Amino acid sequence: MSWSSVGLAALDHPFFLHAVLAGGAIAVAAGLTGYFLVLRAQIFTGDALSHTAFTGALAALALGWDLRIGLFAATIGVALLLGVLGRRSRADDVTIGSAFSWILGLGVFFLTLYTTTRSTANGNAGVSVLFGSIFGLSASAAWTAVLIALVVCAAVLALARPLLFASLDEAVAAARGLPVRLLGLAFLALVGACAAEATQAVGSLLLLGLLAAPAGAAQRLTDSPYRALALSAVLALGEMWAGLALGYAVPSVPPSFGIMAAATVVYGLTFLPRPSGRRGRAVRALA
């Protein structure tokens, strides 16, 4: 069976259309926010949110709430907390490892509480949060994901110029009167919202890859900040759709794995020698 015939067959299934619609919007939002995460050296935040998403979602389910309430409350709350702490949040490896283990342990506790106190509950909820359930989205859930992703994209693009200036030279940006700290907090809130919505696509376990891999590849392919920002979004979109196509064509392959496999391959290809040879880091004055 050719890929074209697979694609035509896939479009006949509403679940695949919902996944393409929601996944595409989520990928673009992740590509835009992920670029600034990489540029600002805040990948640690994405790692923290991947742990937090699991615990927040399971806490909401254990309390009988919609899991999105827990996802958004936990990821946005932790992102803002890290922003408020600033440099003080850069603890040693032992502290970070202990905190992350405690957060995951708390998630397991909520999963156990959920499965033992609710007669209709089962362990599949934890699996869905960890690895995503994008092929299980309803039409309303897909459109909700699109709406949230569009809001995140619009906000990131609105903040792009001042945020880029503050990311490249924070001291000069502050001297020019930019509210650097407020910009950072607003950006982290957007990252938290994006992470919460992206969890249903790739799961909390692989969330960091969706935020970091396309952005890392884009930074290696171009020195222009604005081109890299656009390229990060395009790569994330292409990798999302490629992973969904692979997951549909090969049912034994989870779509989240397909998405991360595509992202990893693209990032790996950026290390191949290029004819141009020279790659530098452009730092522009954007006042």
UniProtKB/TrEMBL annotation:
InterPro entries documented for this protein: ABC_BtuC-like (IPR037294), ABC_TroCD (IPR001626)
Annotated TM spans: 15-37, 94-114, 134-159, 229-250, 256-272
Transmembrane found in the keyword field: yes
Key words, A-Z: Membrane, Transmembrane, Transmembrane helix, Transport
Localization (cell): Cell membrane; Membrane
Membrane topology note: Multi-pass membrane protein
Pfam families assigned: ABC-3 (PF00950)
Major place of residence: membrane
Entry similarity comment: Belongs to the ABC-3 integral membrane protein family.
Stated name of the protein: Metal ABC transporter permease
Organism (species): Streptantibioticus parmotrematis
Lineage: Bacteria, Bacillati, Actinomycetota, Actinomycetes, Kitasatosporales
